[in-house]
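User: Can you model how zinc ion sits in this protein?
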Amino acid sequence: MNMQLFSRIVACCLLLTPFLATADAASCLLAIDIGHDRSAAGAKSARGKPEWFFNNALARLLYQRAIEQNLQAILINPSGASIRLSDRPQLAQAAQASCLISIHHDSVQAQYLLPWNWNGNALRYSDRFRGYGLFVSGKNPAFAESRKIAHDIADSLLQNHLSPSLHHAEPIAGENRPLLDPQRGIYQFDDLVVLRQANMPAVLVEAGVIVHRDQEREVSTPDQQNKIVEAILAAFRLHCRRQTPS
Ligand SMILES: [Zn+2]
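Assistant: Here's the modeled complex, given as structure tokens:
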């Protein structure tokens, strides 16, 4: 990316906390990536809502709670512009983020989708899988710390009675993702660009399966959103402690 373009993207696509202007403020900073964008909006939910809207709502709540808790955070691509996948870790790096969390909502392989009609619209759903998923990349230079962050997110989610979905490990085309930790729902997916190209620890969070008719509703409830947000922030705080030499 040339510097002019990069400056323009930083200007349009980063929501920065006011105190980030200080020189040493970035020692522990959470970059929150809103998965996909308005025009390429990711999966479509059982009721026809594009994934980006779910990601945007959860990412903004995460950002808001981080600020309320005096944690340093940035929101990547809050306008939902069409930026490249590789721009996301670069923006995190430009802000000197110490940790990158990419927020997504999950789908399933096409063969599991069934037709149904909702509000007069012909749509597709699958009630076969539900649950969260966490992804880390073995090509990320901070793989070990990425795993620790994912581990801590999962522990909080499990304590709050959320369960992982293991459907990405199914031995079928498009899946076959190695499970690093089946109990915690942590997968290794080396070539996810946002994780692989990040120079800081990075975790992609699939907050729930939105083609599942009940889970689509569940992931939009404040109760569920709070559990996911607080799990990420608890893991981020532990990450910050590891960043600070005792
Ligand atoms: Zn996604």
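A couple of observations from the model: The beta strands are 14-16, 29-34, 72-76, 99-106, 114-118, 121-125, 133-136, 179-181, 186-188, 202-209. The pocket of zinc ion is lined by residues 35-36, 42, 51, 104 (CB under 6 Å).
User: Helpful, thanks.
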